[in-house]
Automatic annotation (TrEMBL):
<comment type="similarity">
    <text>Belongs to the short-chain dehydrogenases/reductases (SDR) family.</text>
</comment>
<dbReference type="InterPro" id="IPR002347">
    <property type="entry name" value="SDR_fam"/>
</dbReference>
<dbReference type="GO" id="GO:0016491">
    <property type="term" value="F:oxidoreductase activity"/>
</dbReference>
<dbReference type="Pfam" id="PF13561">
    <property type="entry name" value="adh_short_C2"/>
</dbReference>
<keyword id="KW-0560">Oxidoreductase</keyword>
<protein>
    <submittedName>
        <fullName>SDR family oxidoreductase</fullName>
    </submittedName>
</protein>
<dbReference type="InterPro" id="IPR036291">
    <property type="entry name" value="NAD(P)-bd_dom_sf"/>
</dbReference>
Length: 241
């Protein structure tokens, strides 16, 4: 049973993060629902969890600010008097075509998608008891290049490497794993015909859903003999002939 355990889910006010927060609440976690700009979404998630008899609280933080990462962890720990699971879901997905990407764009993407998960994990590890877990959300673009999103893919490849390094550094007390979603939500503005073509090019013949990612997180949160792994939830794209 996970009753009484505390999870912090970053980026939990929308999209995949929301599905993860609600799935963990269904497993009796008390959930810190982090958001940056999606206050209304975060409030909806908290209300939905409480309506089901769960415990949740929204926490605002701009994770591109290094100091805010540590404050967020401290605030969640203080509010719930504990922290057992960190899910690093918050991320940004910005187009960065080669030849047109500025240093400022590169730094901002790395700060949110790679530096923030590291700093959050570092802060959480100081507070977590033995038997706790960290789950990072990577991306299939770490291994499947999308030229229009190259810096995003570079950052997520870093998340996968970070997962292995943290797993080694924090063993045996804290397990660290990652989930690498495939196409579970279309980028804003993607035409319907491109989405359909992508689904047809995927072995399972569909795009995924946020709930597919949430199920993988739930598994890794309790998989007591698994650490340092990245679980691809991509409909089989890595095994295409």
């Amino acid at each position: 049973m996970t009753a009484g355990k505390v999870a912090l889910v970053t980026g939990a006010g929308q999209r995949v993060g929301r599905a993860i927060a609600e799935a963990l609440a269904a497993e009796a976690y008390r959930v810190g629902v982090h958001y940056r700009a999606s206050r209304d979404g975060a409030d909806e998630v908290v209300a939905a969890i409480r309506a089901q008899g769960g415990d949740a609280q929204a926490f605002a933080a701009d994770l591109s600010d290094a100091a805010a990462c540590e404050r967020l962890v401290d605030d969640v720990y203080t509010h719930f008097d504990g922290l057992d699971l960190l899910v690093n879901s918050a991320a940004g997905m910005e187009k960065t075509r080669l030849g047109h990407t500025t240093a400022a764009q590169f730094d901002a993407i790395i700060a949110l998608n790679l530096r923030a998960p590291f700093l959050l994990a570092q802060a959480a590890a100081r507070l977590m008891p033995a038997g706790s877990a960290i789950v990072n959300i990577a991306d299939h673009m770490a291994e499947e290049p999308w030229p229009d999103y190259s810096v995003h893919g570079i950052a997520k490849a870093g998340v996968m490497a970070m997962t292995r390094h943290l797993a080694a550094a924090l063993a045996p007390d804290i397990r660290v794993n990652a989930v690498a979603p495939g196409f579970v939500l279309a980028p804003p503005g993607m035409p319907a015909d491109r989405i359909e073509a992508f689904a047809k090019d995927t072995p399972l013949q569909r795009i995924g859903a946020p709930e597919d990612v949430a199920a993988a997180v739930r598994y890794l949160a309790t998989a007591g003999f698994v650490t340092g792994e990245t679980l691809f939830v991509d409909g089989g794209r890595r095994v295409r002939p």
